[in-house]
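Section 3.1: Structural characterization of target chains.
Under the original work plan, the team committed to producing a structural model for every single-chain target entering the pipeline before any wet-lab resources were allocated. The record below documents one such target. The sequence was received from the expression subgroup and is listed exactly as submitted; it comprises 328 residues.
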Amino acid sequence: MTQTRKDLGRNTVLMAALLLSPWLSVAALAQNDPQRDPQNGVRSPAPDAGADRPRVTPADNAAMPLEFDPQTFFDMDLPGGAAEESVPAEFTWIRGRYTNYGGGRNRRGGGGGFGGRGGWWDTDFPDAESNFLRGVQRYTNIDTNSQSHDWLDLTDPRLFEHTFLYMNMKRVPIGSVSTGPNFSAEEVESLREFMARGGFVLLDDFWGEAHLEDFQNEMVKLYPDRPLVKLDTSHELFHVFFDVNEVVQVPGRAVTWDFNGGFSLDDPNYPPAVYAILDDDGRVMLVANFNADLGDGWEHTFYEPYPTRYSNEAYKIAINYLIYAFTH
């Protein structure tokens, strides 16, 4: 395999990303939005959009990413909107399906894995993807839409057509080794090749010391000679687009929040951290959000009780990861 990082499917997406200067503030974006009413700041729906669909008005305190008018999320998916499924996009968000402890790799509800679920690789899929891509579409010039997502086995050769790979590392229950990733030798080889060609891997949603140890074991499989680096907010990754000055514990379902059990926000039992693996030039190849669930932050954007601040932070840091991947 002799392809280089330039061979990845990234060129047109990179140019689109660079059209929006990293130092342009969200407030400036809102002020310069031609569809936003200068008197009240509300963004009007796209012309003729929604004629055959009821207007959706989430509760005032529902979690919304940054200063995004909620109606624009839905307008993007309406006929004539920016995210019609028939219109192909340059960027496709890819989620990785891995070999699970217990041998299962099926979607949840399939055989194998824990409790017959076939693993947890698809946790929050596809709602998390759809909402996050709406945010990417709103805040950057990356050519994508809410339907531009897919999943691939880690050994699928089509993986090398992409730049960015997301994986959920969930193990259930916390402390269990019955579920979660157990990378095969073939998957390890493919992931190494993906990152060597310039690909970027984002790992998410693993909690507690037992699962940190499991994560470390999987990383040793990938790169036994490369250390895990704990990043602080002085790293470029936190400022490449949005300024992220705090590593936030984004609430995770059945860990620090539940639909019926409320929230345990900033739970001291789960201090958040960001770990990374770097290449020889210092480029971040892989980043992992520990004691945080970015996927829940995206998935539950419109769930009224979900705290807005944490949803916002999930969008900001992940958009930073995306822009970093396209520019490094």
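The helical segments are 11-18, 26-31, 70-75, 127-139, 185-196, 208-222, 294-299, 308-327.
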